[in-house]
Design goal:
Blueprint lengths: L2 H27 L6 H21 L9 H21 L7 H15 L11
Helix pairs in contact: 1-2, 1-4, 2-3, 3-4
């Protein structure tokens, strides 16, 4: 596997872990089960949206780009909430929308922020 492909693969895995982390923390904060089925059911709409965003934006071309992180964030939140509501039939109360937007933004964009150079 070449370097660019390895970087894209690792970046996709990190993005998926960011979505799963958001779900696990949310489920724990709401005293919901953190078993694999519950986590995957809650994460599925956002993971589906994330995969769609990766494909649609051809993220593998610049997986560490901050601009790409913003695109992934917006698409994952907007499409993920839509899938959650209209396909899975789950709620999207305003506080959940706000938390999903902020947390996924911090995770998907924040992990792409340039690292500070130590002097």
């Amino acid at each position: 596997m070449n370097v660019a492909r390895r970087i894209a693969t690792l970046r996709f895995m990190l993005d998926a872990v960011c979505v799963l982390l958001f779900v696990i923390i949310g489920r724990r904060n709401h005293d919901q089960s953190t078993n694999a089925v519950g986590i995957l059911r809650t994460a599925a709409p956002f993971l589906i949206a994330l995969v769609g965003a990766w494909i649609g934006a051809k993220v593998w071309r610049a997986p560490r780009s901050l601009a790409v992180g913003v695109v992934l964030w917006v698409v994952t939140v907007a499409i993920g909430l839509g899938i959650r509501r209209f396909v899975f039939g789950d709620g999207i109360a305003l506080p959940f929308v706000i938390v999903a937007t902020v947390v996924l933004g911090l995770l998907l964009v924040g992990t792409r922020l340039p690292k500070r150079i130590k002097r």
